[in-house]
From TrEMBL:
Organism the protein comes from: Halalkalicoccus jeotgali (strain DSM 18796 / CECT 7217 / JCM 14584 / KCTC 4019 / B3)
GO MF annotation list: ATP binding; ATP hydrolysis activity
Membrane topology label: Peripheral membrane protein
Pfam families found in the cross-reference section: ABC_tran
PANTHER family xrefs: CARBOHYDRATE TRANSPORT ATP-BINDING PROTEIN MG119-RELATED (PTHR43790), SUGAR ABC TRANSPORTER ATP-BINDING PROTEIN (PTHR43790:SF8)
Protein known as: RbsA2
One cellular component (GO) term of this entry: plasma membrane
Residue span(s) of domain ABC transporter: 6-248
Domain of life of the native organism: Archaea
Main location group: membrane
UniProtKB keywords: ATP-binding, Cell membrane, Membrane, Nucleotide-binding, Plasmid, Repeat, Translocase, Transport
Keyword flag rRNA-binding: no
Compartments, record wording: Cell membrane
Source species taxonomy: Archaea, Methanobacteriati, Methanobacteriota, Stenosarchaea group, Halobacteria
Length: 249
């Protein structure tokens, strides 16, 4: 039987007069890749920020593994099993891969670089970074400077940073948007790897081909409201676009 890892119940968020998210309820299944779809301004980032502890909802609740979530920070979300890879990777180019994996995360959320390392012992940091990189099948030298890495490798390091806390749920905001086709393919493989590890992935991706390749289901938002959650096999590009414009399937 499928179990629910994350349940959203009537989540709403208003910024003044703007209703960015309006009464959104759906359940995310354990170990699925769920694409979070919607045009610009549909409310995807707003939802991600709520789920990752960065913003509070104006109304509504959500539950992680059946527990009511009441996050005050990114760290709270991480402790409950949710880690997020933001579009702004906030990779420190002058630091090594292993240091970037262990940079303090809270400042990263604001798009600023973490000033501090959560592990200071160099050997310990290397051991842990090696472990995470190996688990993900990444062939990246933990002692390389991040500034020397390609965009795809930097994206991989940002994912490794998220995985380091061993989250049940990984949220990714447009992880392939700045990448070449080859580099994007490697990130899609990584997403499949996360699924093999038993994790659940919430993926924001504007590239429909990628979504059809990697997602199990899609939750579609339009103007802050949930249009529907559908199995990817029931959708094609045309019906997905119709849903993103607000029409139910
Ligand atoms: P995109 O794909 O362009 O990132 P999105 O689906 O992530 O879009 P959101 O960024 O969540 O959409 O925005 C939803 C609505 O809320 C938009 O109308 C946006 O202008 C508004 N909004 C988002 N953040 C704020 C804010 N901090 N203050 C005021 N309005 C905001």
């Amino acid at each position: 039987m499928e179990s629910t890892v994350l349940e959203l119940d009537g989540l709403s968020k208003a910024y003044g007069a703007i209703q960015a998210l309006d009464d959104v309820s759906f359940a995310v299944r354990e170990n699925e890749v769920l694409a979070l779809m919607g045009d610009n301004g549909a409310g995807k980032s707003t939802l991600i920020k709520i789920l990752s502890g960065v913003n509070d909802p104006t109304r509504g609740m959500f539950y992680v593994n059946g527990q009511e979530a009441n996050f005050g920070s990114y760290e709270d979300a991480e402790a409950a099993g949710i880690a997020t890879v933001y579009q702004d990777l906030a990779i420190a180019p002058n630091r090594t891969v292993k240091e970037n994996v262990f940079l303090g995360k809270e400042p990263l959320v604001e798009g600023k670089l973490g000033e501090w390392l959560r592990i200071v012992d160099d050997d310990e940091m290397e051991r842990q970074a090696d472990k995470v990189l190996n688990e993900l099948g990444m062939e990246i030298d933990p002692n390389a400077d991040c500034g020397d890495l390609s965009g795809g490798q930097q994206q991989s390091v940002a994912i490794a940073r998220a995985i380091e806390s061993d989250p049940d749920i990984v949220i990714m905001d447009e992880p392939t948007s700045a990448l070449s086709v080859e580099a994007a393919d490697r990130i899609l493989n990584l997403i499949e790897r996360l699924k093999e590890q038993g994790r659940t992935v919430l993926l924001v991706d504007h590239n429909l081909e990628e979504v059809f390749e990697v997602a199990d289901r899609a939750a579609v938002l339009a103007s802050g409201r949930l249009v529907g959650v559908e199995d990817i096999d029931r959708l094609d590009q045309e019906s997905m676009i119709q849903m993103m414009m607000g029409s139910e399937l």
